[in-house]
Design brief:
Elements lengths: L2 H10 L17 H31 L25 E2 L11 E2 L6 E2 L7 E3 L2 E3 L17 E2 L5 E2 L24 H14 L1 E4 L2 E5 L16 E2 H13 L4 H14 L18 E9 L2 E12 L12 H17 L3 H4 L1 H15 L29 H17 L7 H21 L1 E3 H8 L23 H6 L5 E8 L2 E7 H10 L4 H13 L1 H4 L8 E2 L4 H8 L20 H10 L3 H12 L11 E2 L5 E2 L8 H15 L13 H13 L17
Antiparallel strand pairs: 1-12, 2-3, 4-5, 6-7, 8-9, 10-11, 11-12, 13-14, 14-15, 15-16, 17-18
Helix pairs in contact: 1-2, 3-19, 4-6, 4-19, 6-9, 8-9, 8-10, 9-10, 9-13, 10-20, 13-14, 13-17, 17-18, 17-19, 18-19
């Protein structure tokens, strides 16, 4: 027997070893046997790929240095060739990976491939492979997530092939839905040099046009990462955080222009390419997309903000603060903050962005200061403030961060809030006011108040509007922005309860047959033609134009748990469970009541699956939501009170504060 065959035989005997992970030991053991059976089916193929990777590692172990400029120069003036992809050059280590070298220049190395535990089962090959292997004739290529590929991407089969149980009436039971969801989530895991690094956007076997749905998206991985954290699977989240941080340092250009230092990619893909100078060997590389290949070529503003939020959640959940304390991670946080806090022409504390720079990544009239970006910005600032190491080099940044938090919270709470009383006030606005104490500061014309809003706004409840610019208020209700304003504390306690009151009052509009509308109402008619450019994908009540997105379940659940109103989330989850599995986990739903699967929706969409799982896990253990929730500290509350007292329209709060804040 050859060496490789003998090694395969030895390694394949170890799949029944049980996990020593204290978190995994408490999980449902019914997963273990089913996962073991599927794991064995793919082991031989996967080991072959790992041996190829290992031979490369033995001969090509190297380092990946970061290029930092200006006051970020903690790693020395070393560079990365922007035309060269991030190669698989992992050093084996029993300890936590980090920065090495005695010269203090911060040589980078990635954590070694480690055994990933789940539900009591261990895969000693450092790879979880669940699902059936598709038999191929001839030479097959193994993709990064373990599927065999020949010509087209091999994708997992539907829920029936996963052994999902149904009762006598052919209805999917709740337990079987969760089992199916975990199977599908694990089938979506992407591996880099044998270690889990993320989840692909979708595994839709019905779609022949993959586009970029086979990539790992930063924003899409967030619910997947939270789900893994809640199950005690920390390695995949840690690997994701460190690898995406390494991609942050790249110099990307489009038409000879480079974006700001610190920009996080929208997505990345693991590719297998020939090794330089040796056509007989291959290596795995990470190929990031910063928007230069995306539809519309829009840079992802939200990626860095979500990355900071996930970094804090990882530390809170795992108890491992060593990751956020690393010099390279601290530098990554500072780079994102400096990019967001950089001076510009804008007079407002909100972030000014282009259309399509967040979850709504197509033209939908959200350019300017969209609520979703502001809520994530506020949350990321609070998380960064908590994680930044207190040192002399961070003092100015922390001071600027605190000032921005105060100004941003005041601006959003004061000018974005709308309820029946505020709407009546806007209806009576005087225009063309020129003074420092003007009531109508943004010169909003009362005729902008749409007839639909007058009929729709409830007597009890309110929300934060979608956007605010000079002479323009976008009165649409955007779910993610409002929910994350509750989670982050950007909305006051009173406003947060009012937002949930509105969701309950307008349940038939926002939830209906499938939670949750991404926005309400839809752009229709001439308004749709002008604002979207007649986008055939964003037709009224579809996709980003008031489509219903199941992934929003997890943000709704966190918001409800924070406000001690979990029954709202439980009701929404119950609505989703009636059909989401039967419909094969679509990306989104169409029509006013979300009765149809989206006309261009991908099936087996990973963040639809992960969003459901996170919602279920958090309802079962509400205390776990603390890793995502942020609260104002007394210093910020005091500063906000000072701003309220300085506002001529609001004479309340503490008037004689000794501390001065620059706004």
């Amino acid at each position: 027997m050859g060496t490789s065959e003998a090694a395969l035989q030895i390694l394949s005997s170890g799949c029944r070893i049980l996990s020593s992970d204290p978190y995994a030991s408490n999980l449902d053991w019914k997963f273990a046997s089913k996962f073991h059976i599927n794991c064995v089916k793919k082991r031989a193929l996967r080991h072959k790929q790992l041996f190829n990777c290992s031979s490369f590692l033995q001969n090509q172990i190297g380092i990946q240095r970061l290029k930092m400029i200006g006051d970020y120069g903690l790693f020395g003036n070393t560079s990365v060739d922007s035309l060269r992809l991030l190669s698989c050059k992992c050093q084996q280590s029993e300890t936590v990976g980090g920065l090495t070298s005695e010269d203090g220049k911060g040589t980078w190395f990635v954590d070694s491939a480690r055994v990933l535990h789940f539900n009591g089962a261990v895969n000693p090959t450092n790879v979880l492979e669940f699902g059936n292997v598709q038999q191929k004739q001839g030479n097959g290529e193994l993709t990064s997530n373990g599927a065999v590929k020949q010509g087209k991407e091999s994708l997992p089969t539907d829920g029936g092939a996963l052994g999902i149980g149904r009762d006598a009436s052919n209805k999917v039971t709740v337990d079987s839905i969760e089992d199916e969801a975990w199977n599908l989530l694990l089938n979506s895991v992407v591996y880099y040099c044998g270690s889990p690094i993320g989840t692909i956007a979708a595994n839709d076997p019905t779609s022949s046009n993959v586009l970029n749905y086979d990539q790992v998206f930063i924003r899409d991985f967030i619910p997947s990462g939270i789900a893994f954290l809640l199950k005690g699977e920390y390695d995949i989240v840690r690997n994701f955080i460190l690898h995406t941080l390494q991609l942050q340092s790249w110099e990307k250009t489009m038409d000879c222009h480079s974006p700001g230092q610190g920009l996080m990619p929208a997505s990345f893909k693991v590719r297998t390419v020939p090794l330089d100078g040796d056509d007989s060997s291959t290596e795995e590389v990470l190929d990031p997309d910063f928007g230069e290949a995306a539809i519309g070529r829009v840079a992802p503003v939200d990626s860095g903000l979500w990355w900071i939020i996930l970094l804090r959640a990882y530390g809170k959940c795992s108890g491992d603060l060593s990751v956020q304390e690393r010099i390279d991670v601290q530098t990554g946080i500072k780079m994102i903050l400096r990019l967001c806090l950089s001076d510009g022409f804008d007079m407002f504390p909100t972030l000014l962005v282009t259309d399509g720079s967040c979850m709504i990544d197509r033209r939908m009239g959200i350019h300017g200061h969209p609520l979703e970006i502001q809520a994530l910005f506020y949350s990321a600032l609070l998380c960064a403030r908590e994680m930044l190491a207190p040192e002399d080099g961070s003092a100015d940044l922390i001071r600027a961060l605190t000032n921005r938090l105060v100004a941003l919270s005041f601006h959003i709470r004061e000018y974005y809030w709308i309820d029946l009383r505020k709407l009546n006030e806007i209806y009576r606005y005087k225009t063309e006011e020129y003074s420092y104490d003007a009531v109508n500061k943004f010169n909003i014309y009362p005729d902008q108040v749409s007839p639909w809003l007058v009929k729709w706004i409830p007597n009890q409840g309110g929300y934060l509007i979608g956007n605010l610019q000079p002479a323009h208020m976008d009165f649409r209700f955007f779910s993610l922005g409002n929910l994350w304003s509750v989670v982050s504390g950007l909305a006051t306690t009173e406003q947060s309860h009012a937002i949930l009151d509105l969701i309950e009052a307008k349940w038939i509009d926002l939830v209906a047959d499938m939670p949750l509308k991404i926005c309400y109402p839809a752009l229709e008619g001439q308004e749709w033609q002008i604002i979207t450019g007649s986008d055939p994908k964003n037709t009224p009540w579809s996709y980003h134009n008031a489509g219903s997105w199941p992934t929003l379940l997890w943000q709704l659940t966190v918001a409800c748990i924070k406000m001690n109103r979990p029954e709202i989330a439980a009701r929404a989850i119950g609505v989703a469970e009636r059909r989401i599995s039967w419909d094969k986990w679509p990306e989104y739903y169409d029509t006013k009541r979300a009765r149809f699967i989206g006309k261009q929706a991908r099936l087996f969409q990973t963040w639809s699956i992960a969003g459901y799982l996170v919602a279920k896990l958090l309802l079962a253990d509400p205390s776990a939501a603390k890793m995502l929730i942020t609260e104002e500290d007394p210093e910020l509350v005091n500063a906000f009170s000072c701003m309220i007292s300085a506002n001529p329209r609001r004479q309340r709060g503490r008037k004689n504060s000794k501390q001065t804040y620059i706004v």
